[in-house]
Design a protein that fits this description.
single chain, alpha+beta, 4-stranded antiparallel sheet, 8 helices, 12 strands, about 20% strand, globular, binds aspartic acid
Length: about 300
Amino acid sequence: MLAVHGGAGHLSLEHLGPEIEALCREGLHKALEVGYRVWKAGGSALDIAEAAVNTLEDDPRFNAGRGAVFNAEGKIELDAAIMDGATRLAGAIAGVSHVKNPISLARAIAEKSPHVFLVGDGAEVFATEIGMALMDPSYFHTTDRWEQLLRARASGDISLSEDNKFGTVGAVARCPQNHLSSATSTGGMTNKRYGRVGDSPIIGAGTWAEDDACAISTTGHGEFFLRLGVAHEIAARVRLLGESLESAASQLIHEALGALSGEGGTGGLIALDRTGRAALPFNTTGMYRGVVTERGEITVAIFEE
Ligand code: ASP
């Protein structure tokens, strides 16, 4: 079983338009199909989540990999993390600018280095050492994202929701042996300060997997998710308090996030437990999301549907 997200935001059908909406659903559908093929072939939980996220990273419409948003300097800074629920193996990167599939580099750090987290140039040096090709910055230059930066600069906005047609991507998977994994990949927020890192690559904030509890991948205003340690908090409540996944995930998104500041943090998450229960709460008007069951049935949604 596999769930994916492609970001949350204040979305409306009028704003999106039918064409973009269809493209978005198609992108999510494809990621679920690819992940399901890996599931069918007996892939591990990490293989399934990585394959689904790679598909979304290669899709220029999502804010990860190729379609990443620009920071205030007009540059790309990518963040990603992946975690294996059976072993707690985890890998993460932040602030890389030339890596085509950040989630695969995060996985390589987990599996081929003694470390969990590498940043910036150090992460890219490691990528070349293990034979991963680095991309020219032009690979990540999409007109939509550039125009989005120009609008954000003009309005002084640091934004995840301005024109947030597509956002951060993530996947939570359960393999045929019932092990869990989680993966999250992002370009962060448009017009973010150089060096800013959000929740996505932080193990325990934006990404977490443990077989005894659940797997979580978040999306939204990262600063709030960081301050709440959202992903680990949900898993701890499930494991230690015996709270249901739905209840813990919903409380964090619908109550805790909003209570943290006057304005409230916005966003959502996808979560999966070992029994195959999924929770996909969000406190925005929409979250790009989808699920594929063990029988290959795919559901994709954007709004409350
Ligand atoms: N959580 C991401 C960040 O703050 C943004 C997003 O999910 O859209 O970097």
